Amino acid sequence: MFKNYIIGVDWGTTHLRAYLCDISTSGDTHLIAVEKGLGVSKQLLSFEDSLFDCIGPWLKLYGKLPIYLCGQIGSSIGWHEAPYLPCPINPHKIKNDFLSFIVRGHKVSIIPGISCCLGDEDFDVMRGEELQILGWLKLNPTHQKGHYLLCLPGTHTKWVLIVDGEIKLFKTAMTGELFDLLSNQSILIQKDESSFNFDVFLNGATKTLNSELGAFSHSLFSVRSKQLFSKLNENNAASYLSGFLIGSDIRAAINASQWNIQSFQSIEIIGAPHLSDCFAQVLSLKNIKSRVHNVEKITLLGFSGLR
Amino acid sequence: MFKNYIIGVDWGTTHLRAYLCDISTSGDTHLIAVEKGLGVSKQLLSFEDSLFDCIGPWLKLYGKLPIYLCGQIGSSIGWHEAPYLPCPINPHKIKNDFLSFIVRGHKVSIIPGISCCLGDEDFDVMRGEELQILGWLKLNPTHQKGHYLLCLPGTHTKWVLIVDGEIKLFKTAMTGELFDLLSNQSILIQKDESSFNFDVFLNGATKTLNSELGAFSHSLFSVRSKQLFSKLNENNAASYLSGFLIGSDIRAAINASQWNIQSFQSIEIIGAPHLSDCFAQVLSLKNIKSRVHNVEKITLLGFSGLR
């Protein structure tokens, strides 16, 4: 009766999200339940105890189920280290390289990450996003043919070039991590913002987006100096900083030598709703179309694609 | 007998350095004693108690002396807020706008900061560096004529354009603060470096310095990914990051629209010795000559110029 149930766990650095899903034979995925927990870097218990605290009740109800883990739980700071599979690669191939082990009588499979070499001793890596890419490929059969550029914003933005259903290459921008560090611990912002100000966000984005030379190093301090001269309300400083950083990220994507951003019909954005909208709006400042996808739906499709 | 003694206090965000100096009538400055203390953001006592803990013994020995404070002590997070004087300005004019007050019977003068408007609602500010610029101008009478570009590395790098003895404009880069945040609190560096590796530093600098497009956003993550693929020893990651950030800072100075860096005979560097050498070496990668000055000597010359 529960033979189509699986447990998929997206276990990143800061969050754990466990999904109990029913995958019909037609491939449709129904979400039965969700549980949340602490990320890899925030563990108080052992990884094993944390996992079973979270999904134990489901196992009691439904017995043995396939358990898939993706994200930083498979990294050098995680539970067991899963390999990185090199690009170019069809994401379906991650199914051939699970790191599987038995714990408390249940089989747990950690999904491998993906790596790519951008030449000149330059490498890049992802863990967790490969599952969402798999989900995006399942979303529509047309995604298996042609060139696509995916943008997955988060702690680290991943820009992923897909060619005929394969991950060709990708690039990481530390936009979210920089925002966290600079908004909480730098001289730039003394006061918490009251709420997100969209106009100010776009001002910040324009600052870096339209810079011919990459204004990062010599313009970041403007976040503070504008406040000193009443050109930026201190309650809006975080909105401006967010725009500044996302503008810089998108400017780099526009200028990337690895693809021609104008050649894509739209950029496929997969991330948290507000953040995805922010990226879409800054892209639209440069007349670049984008489609924002429902990240949970894509993630569940990814887990269902592992069977 | 002590009528030529002054006390100069460089009181920044993280450090306090108090100098007792003897200024001869010929303008030569002799350092009599130095005391160190905590910066503005690290105070455990009141600013008044901290100052007198530090310089009280000198006052007991020598009586009333002129006391000059510069740096963040005059900012909104300091003791009393001194104004910013707008560019272009001859640094000697800071003598006309001391914020002076009496405390425990002694007259204390806080030196004003300097601001500049770079157009388009863009402002910049400095506090403390104006004193070193004053010292540099006193170092050699030839500095009063012609164009010079000063580079003052530190928590924030200041690039200062001097024209005929006036501060024409300047730009701030948060290079030092970014290094502190990223080396201590980001995913980039997991382990402390054992020691500075100069070759690795130059590799990092080349990465951003030679980037046509400003590689900041999409290349910063290389500090981590190179370690994962054994292209960078984790003990050298901080050296690489330092080079990466300084390269980005200098690249922006080379491309700045406000000056033509090739038009200067040499860049005048005023900062801590190791950091100054790092900037000089990266400039030399682009065949740009520089002169590294003794920062303490320049600072004392600055204080002596206040009389």
Structure notes:
Chain A is an alpha/beta fold. Chain A has two domains: 5-127, Nucleotidyltransferase, domain 5 (2-Layer Sandwich); 173-293, 2-keto-3-deoxy-galactonokinase, C-terminal domain (Nucleotidyltransferase, domain 5). Helix content of chain A is 34%, strand content 28%. Chain A is built from nine helices and 14 strands. Chain A has a six-stranded mixed β-sheet with strand order 3-2-1-4-7-6. A five-stranded mixed β-sheet of chain A has the order 12-11-10-13-14, with helices on both faces. In chain A, α2 crosses α9 (295-304) and α7 (237-255) crosses α8 (273-285). At the A-B interface, β9, β12, α3, α5 and α6 of A face β9, β12, α3, α5 and α6 of B.
Top-tier CATH class of the largest domain in chain A: Alpha Beta
Q: Considering the protein shown, what is the CATH homologous superfamily of the largest domain in chain A? A: 2-keto-3-deoxy-galactonokinase, substrate binding domain
CATH topology of the largest domain in chain A: Nucleotidyltransferase, domain 5
Number of domains of chain A: 2
Shape, per Cα inertia axes of chain A: globular
Number of helices of chain A: 9
Strand order of the largest sheet of chain A: 3-2-1-4-7-6
Largest interface: A-B, 50 and 49 residues
Number of strands of chain A: 14
* Assembly state (oligomeric): homodimer
Distance linking N and C termini of chain A:
17 Å
Average pLDDT for all residues of chain A: 92
Low-confidence stretches of chain A: none
Helix content of chain A: 25-40%
| Rg on CA atoms of chain A, Å | 20 Å
CATH architecture of the largest domain in chain A: 2-Layer Sandwich
